[in-house]
Amino acid sequence: MLLPPRLWRASVTAVLPLSLLLAIGACVRDVGQRPVAPSHDRLLVPCERAGPLTADTSEDELKRVVGPEHVVSLGETARDRGHNAVTASILYPDTAGRLRVVWKTPRRQRPHYVETTVRGAPWKTRRGIAIGTGVYELVRLNGGDFRFRGFFWDYGGHLESWEGGLLETHHPAECFLMAIGMQAPADRRHFDALAPLTGEAVFRTDHPALRAGPIVVVLVGVRFP
User: Fold this and answer.
1) Among residues 78, 107, 156, 194, which one has the fewest Cβ atoms lying within 10 Å of its Cβ?
2) 8 with 14: CB under 8 angstroms?
3) What is the per-residue pLDDT across 28-85, written as a single tens digit (0 to 9) for each?
4) How far is CA 106 from the centre of its chain?
């Protein structure tokens, strides 16, 4: 006996295998959970990439990926933190996501490192380390204290060593650029309290003077091999 169309549709739905229904549901969920393409994300992966930029990406290739309007070549006046002349570009200029790219050679064929100091920048690592991450949150993620360079000079607050902690695996100091410092706004009292932690010496995060004020990540970036 033929069933009316209304009952036929209901019957087909009733006898669909459970495995097929689950598969259909999984496909629907996957559509909404596709990972963001590297050309559009703001993920820092030490030694590997910063968003669309990898160890083998040239400036020309970067412009093709993100659009030439999102890459600005800096002139010969660019300097690194040691005041040495460098060849550099700005990725995503005039946005909170702007990233400074320093190239290995004037030909701009391969990046040396990238960094940002912009407060509220969207760049972060897979463990969530970003501008504004607190120093004791870093200690928690690392499973112990780490070492950093003293404050108030060219490389003040820069990561020296995770001391074998948990972050060493995916955030090795030779590839992960990070500096900690006083979170703005800060007054003279806070700076005076940090006097024992100044200069080119190396300190540990268990130093009592570090509790003088809110110390957070003020620079984050990636160095390429």
Assistant:
1) 107
2) no
3) 333 333 344 455 799 999 999 999 999 999 999 999 999 999 999 997 767 877 778 8
4) 25
Among 65, 175, 56, which residue's Cα sits nearest to residue 125?
175
CA–CA gap between residue 57 and residue 110 (Å, rounded): 6
Residue labelled with tokens 């790219």: 101
Assign residue 51 a region: left if phi > 0, alpha if psi is -120 to 50, beta otherwise? left
**Residue whose entry in the numeric block shows the structure tokens 């946005």:** 95
Nearest Cα neighbor of 185 from 211, 158, 208, 213 is: 213
Q: In what order do the strands lie in the sheet with 49-50?
A: 44-45, 49-50, 53-54
84: tokens are 């040495």
Which residue's entry shows tokens 């009952």?
Answer: 7
Token pair of 69, please?
A: 């309007």
What sections of the chain are H helices per DSSP? 5-15, 18-32, 59-66, 135-142, 188-193
Q: Residue 7: enclosing H or E segment and its boundaries? A: helix 5-15
Residue carrying structure tokens 């070492």: 147
Instruction: Report which of 209, 208, 217, 214 is spatially closest to residue 177, judged by C-alpha positions.
Output: 217
pTM for the model stands at 0.80
DSSP string covering 34-48, please? PPPPTTT--BEETTT
On whether the CB atoms of residues 223 and 115 are closer than 8 A, the answer is: no
